[in-house]
Amino acid sequence: MTEGPATVIVIDDDPSIREALGSLLRSVGFDVQLLASVSDLLSSGRPRGPTCLVLDVRLPGQSGLEFQRELSRRNIQLPIIFITGHGDIPMSVQAMKGGAIEFLTKPFRDQDLLDAVHVGLARDRAWLENEKALSTLHASYESLTPREREVMALVVTGRLNKQIAGDLGVSEITVKVHRSQVMQKMRAKSLPELARMADKLKLVPENPQSS
Question: Which domains does the chain possess?
């Protein structure tokens, strides 16, 4: 899946603030979506590329903080910059503990918002790249045969070919062939690299059978 352009979503129920923020963000080259409520975002869906959300705390219907909690419950990654004209310390603490990039009280400096947006987009870009790499890794693992997966799970624990052959009841030469296929299909250049892949895949080998 190709990465789309960086997008900043602004959700504020005040049309004048939405338009002012939209003009500011477009002036520095961002794609911008201007929305009046959280429900509008849920209807339109998340853009494909790196995304950052500029979110008013007080909104009609679901509030900004409530939406932050909902995203967390649903394990949806979306960097948030809160803006508010009625902020207080407990509210800002709650937002930051929830993982917000910044909590800005109106009126705020344009540069403060832009700096926060850059941080948010960089964080989301890194997350998307990690998800893409993990998806590729899963695809490589799915290409392994069941026996190759067994061999991989034992190889990364440090067991020798002879020991693995005993564990699986096959010849040592058969283990060597499977091991070579695993390294090739997983595109691993070394055993430590294969072990890191197994860790990312959260592979848990079964207890080896005693030979």
Answer: 5-134 (3.40.50.2300), 143-199 (1.10.10.10)
